[in-house]
Amino acid sequence: MKIGLIDIGSNTTKILIAEKCSSTNATNFIPIEEVSFPCRLFPKSTIENFEIGTKAIDSLQNCLSQLKQSCEDHCVEEVRTVATEAFRKASNSLQIIEIVKQFNGLEIEVLSGIQEAMAVAKGLQTDPLLKDWMDFIAMDIGGGSVELIHVQDCQVMEAKSLPLGAVRMAQMNQADLNGEMKPEIQSKLVAFLRQFLKSEIPMLGDSHHKVVATGGTLVYLRKLLEKEKRIDTGGSIKLSDIESVSKIMNAFLLEERITRYPQIPPDRADIFPYGLLTVTEVMKYLGVDQITHSFHNLRYGLMYDLMQTTA
User: Fold this and answer.
1) pLDDT digits (tens, 9 = 90+) for 143-168
2) Which neighbouring-strand residues pair with 2?
3) C-alpha angle 103/108/109, rounded to 5°?
4) Which structural domains are found in the chain, ordered by start?
């Protein structure tokens, strides 16, 4: 049986198409295709009006049409469509859900922050590289939110969904995102992040747990570090390397980032420094000097559950 899982995020819309297998390993499916389309749902210059505009809706419809076609090309038997932080915050989510159902025939399920966090934890636990990890903190950084999950003895002890995604952090910057991230902006955001983390996850401060992370910011950071041969196949990333990349990115105009670092898609280059800033501050708050990146994300966790319930 083949299943297509569409994930509508704040900055990209993605799909995982997989086929059920009888493996006794952690993963009960085989990935067939993973595709991601740029589709930013909120204007990058404002945070006050959480309404998804007409242009963004049209872009989303186009993405969903292409992803639905991919499902048809692979003879998928079931399609599930989920949305996360952007739809949780948007004032017109219900209208968009109806529009998508009417024109694309897809029914969007809006995950709660806790549902998203739990699925991230389950997805990471399907990664063979993490099979011996019993106690750790999982971090998933998206466009709208950051999920932090404390896993102990392979069980989720605490899960938090925080509005600290790369797009959300960029929206807090009222300056032009085409420019460099100036020191005063960095200082403002660092102060905000430190206070927010202290108030929202006080029990995890300086916990020094092993940390595994997923999300677009980590994917493209890994690409940069792999090109410079500063990361091993296990996906271990040092805080010092993240800070080094962050310092370079902050000093460049958007056009320079795009030109010098083609590994980063243009639609992500403007928010990339903000994602890096969030990752570094979370790491410092947790008291760790390295993290392990995994490709087994939210979609892997949701797909695992879907395969469990199919005949």
Assistant:
1) 989 999 999 998 899 899 999 999 88
2) 19
3) 165
4) 2-113+298-309 (3.30.420.40), 127-293 (3.30.420.150)
